[in-house]
Design a protein that fits this description.
Helix content: 25-40%
CATH class of the largest domain: Alpha Beta
Bound molecules: flavin-adenine dinucleotide
Structural class: alpha/beta
CATH topology of the largest domain: FAD/NAD(P)-binding domain
Strand order of the largest sheet: 5-2-1-9-19
């Protein structure tokens, strides 16, 4: 009997897995022995890392999007019909239209979502660049900014752990080039006792911020924003005034995860090496949706996806497990408008950011375009 693979979520992880499986299992798909189906929410695929450049007018919005149908292998039927219930005991997924998809193997890749509404006043008082609307508004506000206090406020959990540092250094360069740094003060706040969750990155960031006179406050867990008084207050009792507040809002996983009782906060308990849902042997979890305590990043999702492609292929064709995920993550880090560095690490090797260079910045810009090949599984 034909084996059915169902992928819920057509973002970065789901798409790479679908395309990769088609490459590995082409013969079986042709013979009708295996089918791959995807359920998503939109006909558009967005390259989220490109949002970082929107506030500075450094990318055209059209460059962030492709038709999902064109990114996805044509052998994968794509239903724009969000999952409303995932029943891992009965091996079926129900969608908004009422359709029920049964599966032999399920991949959950529903990502994460921004929750500024979790913090009183944040939606009204803050800017962010983590979605297109927010990035557009921040671009407009930045164009009018004429000096004053900027706070870059980081809340957890959030995806792309280096993006808050990137936006801080880019803001500095952007305002410096406009001659506004003489009358601008940038303060970076972070919820734990250092500047980044990864200690070597925190140690690297501290002197870099000090070099530019960027202030910082650690142990800052946001309690509320007062959009009228223009202040932000932490649970620890600190209140900071601002002229422009740039926040990284806290995230949750997708609603369907919580409503299907698959994980608190929308994060699915996942075996960090096998990438199987804890308690399941036919439900893989990939990307931001996992509860694995490593960076929620596109690069993480990509390395996880490669592991899942190998294991699903191996299970379906040879009946055996192929390999475990080693926790690999690789991220470019913009350290200004013209320079960048990178970090890579895995479960046993800590990150070690090197000196920034213009070449690494260009690599990041090049990857922003190459992503579309990567999503198709060609890179
Ligand atoms: C500003 C910014 C900068 C970033 N920079 C970097 C970077 O430099 N490097 C890096 O590695 N990462 C970066 N990231 C993070 C990266 O984009 C994400 O970690 C990555 O997209 C996660 O992939 P995913 O497939 O898990 O989730 P997503 O790509 O978000 O895909 C999830 C998909 O699931 C869909 N979905 C949700 N609910 C349902 C449902 N009920 N039914 C069906 N489908 C559903 C969503 O519509 C979405 O298409 C950045 C992110 C942002 C916002």
């Amino acid at each position: 009997m034909s084996k059915r693979i169902l992928i819920v979520g057509g973002g970065l992880a789901g798409t790479i897995i679908a395309n990769g499986l088609c490459r590995q299992l082409g013969k079986q798909i042709r013979k009708g022995d295996i089918s791959i189906t995807m359920i998503g929410t939109s006909d558009q695929h967005m390259y989220q890392p490109g949002l970082l450049y929107v506030p500075f007018g450094k990318i055209r919005e059209a460059e962030l999007f492709r038709d999902q149908r064109k990114v996805l292998d044509r052998r994968v039927p794509y239903h724009i019909d969000p999952a409303t219930n995932i029943d891992v005991d009965a091996n079926k997924v129900t969608t908004q239209s009422g359709k029920v998809h049964e599966y032999d193997y399920l991949v959950i890749a529903t990502g994460s979502r921004l929750m500024p509404q979790n913090i009183p006043g944040m939606e009204e008082g803050a800017h962010w660049f983590y979605d297109l609307n927010g990035a557009r508004k921040m671009r407009d506000a930045l164009a009018e900014f004429d000096g004053g206090k900027i706070i870059v406020n980081v809340n957890a959990p959030h995806k792309c752990p280096v993006a808050p540092l990137e936006i801080t250094f880019m803001l500095y360069d952007y305002l410096n080039e406009k001659g506004l740094m003489d009358k601008t003060e940038i303060t970076y706040t972070y919820p734990i006792g250092r500047l980044h969750a990864l200690e070597p990155v925190a140690e690297w960031a501290k002197p870099a911020m000090e070099k530019y006179g960027i202030k910082y406050e650690t142990f800052f867990n946001t309690k509320e924003v007062d959009p009228v008084a223009k202040t932000i207050t932490s649970e620890e009792g600190s209140t900071l005034p601002y002229d422009m507040l740039v926040t990284i809002p806290p995230h949750n996983g997708a609603e369907v995860i919580t409503s299907s009782d698959l994980g608190v906060g929308g994060w699915v308990p996942t075996d960090k090496q096998k990438l199987l849902r804890e308690g399941s042997d036919n439900v893989f979890i990939c990307g931001d949706t996992t509860n694995i305590p490593i960076s929620k990043a596109g690069s993480t999702a990509h390395f996880e996806a490669d592991t899942i492609i190998d294991n699903l292929t191996s299970l379906l064709t040879e009946g055996r497990w192929a390999r475990n995920y080693d926790g690999k993550v690789f991220c470019f880090v913009e350290t200004g408008m013209k320079e960048g560095t990178y970090v890579w690490f895995d479960y046993t090797t800590p990150p070690d950011p090197g000196p920034p260079s213009q070449m690494i910045h260009w690599f990041k810009l090049a990857y922003n375009r190459l992503y579309w090949l990567s999503a198709r599984g060609l890179l």
